[in-house]
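Hello everyone,

My group is preparing for a crystallization screen and wants a predicted model to guide construct design. The compound we'll soak is magnesium ion. Before spending weeks at the bench, it would help to have a computed complex in hand. I've included the protein sequence and the ligand's SMILES below. Output in structure-token form would be ideal because that's what our pipeline reads.
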Amino acid sequence: MRTAPTILHLDMDAFFASVEQASKPSLRGKAVVVGGLGPRGVVATCSYEARVFGVHSAMPMGQARRLAPHAAYLVPRFELYRSISEQVMRLLRELSPLVEPLSLDEAFVDLEAGQAARDADSARLAGVKLRADIRTVTGLTGSVGLAASKMLAKIASEEAKPDGLVLIPPGTERAMLEPMTVRTLPGVGPATGDHLRRAGITTVGEIAEAGEDELVRLLGKAHGHALYAMALARDERPVVAERETKSVSVEDTYDVDIHDRVRVGVEVGRLADRCVRRLRASGLSGRTIVLKVRRYDFSTLTRSETLRGPTDDPAVVREAAARLLDSVDTTGGVRLLGVGVSGLADYTQEDLFAQAAGDVSEEPAEEPEAGPVEEQAPSPAERRWPAGHDVRHAELGHGWVQGSGLGRVTVRFETPYSEVGRVRTFPVDDPELAPADPLPLVSPVVRRPGGEPVGPSGGGGSARRVAG
Ligand SMILES: [Mg+2]
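Reply:
Good plan to model first. Here are the tokens for the complex, ready for your pipeline.
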């Protein structure tokens, strides 16, 4: 392992929600929840103000609404998030050729490979400058972790959140990890966490104390070895620039082997849904569906199927996983099941629109009473107004959809550079109203030859400009 804290992990703070707050002045400092608004939707990201109420990523949207009924609920605008992500990733690539994106808003950077840093002082400087540059270019905050390994850099950025920087000085890693919960370590989910707890192990220090043999006995060879090494802060994984090999997967180990074929099918469906939630939370989609089955005798099979195009549709992933299960003999019992999606791609624009429109159409944002959810297909006009998306009114200018339903659409007229704007309601087929492209979060200052810098047109109120 290297001796200098020159691996950087960047994680943007509440990324999707922060983008929405930056583009909508009326939502700054407010609880904002971004995700699928349909009956089966989940939270993709929520603002820190919403987290106070207990809302978190991957939570079913219905539960979020009960916890934070007054929050703003918005349909994701992945096209915008992706363009901002590209700005951030460009800044990272200026630091090093070795940038490993984990999602739209998260990446590892090997500062040493880019000669951006060689010791703790230069690494800290690079991190401080990066955070300032991100703020200037995007108007958003990101948290930075610096350490001598990927695992520790990620733990450091988590500690730094929100809007901070944490550097773990080499030599202090083990002392820092010791009191932390086992769940801090990568690969320790609820199942492994429970398993360890039953063996009396709750902290990272207790893993180290238990020793390697005990860990292997508890968790099997591969997982046991890996976890023991991580507990000692040993992590040699390099920062890898390409992402083609990346996949999102989830798996569960069962305390008692499952024999019932129907139950196996139910579990696979559940894992497929969980996998899709993680995929969506990262703003990704993938083409290859993978099923993993470990049988009673520890023989492990994987089966995969490659689709024609990338998907993040839970029904598609569930069906593919069920087809794959059909080809596996589970009569002796199953001790582990997993579902993964690989061949990841960012959302294409077309997918996004279809998905966003589909999500919002299932539940008008201004449902009058807590009656049954309207399952009827909405009119094409209602499909055009997903909550949170931009619109332009012929007379009143740029705004965003605050809600729609019952043949009406409510628009708040404001831009990223304006004061909090006013709200107006229109018939959904008002000819003066049209969907619009998002505006950049930071006012692009246009210099006309020999003239004064001018902000973008279309915004009411005063322009908020960022120097440079
Ligand atoms: Mg983040």
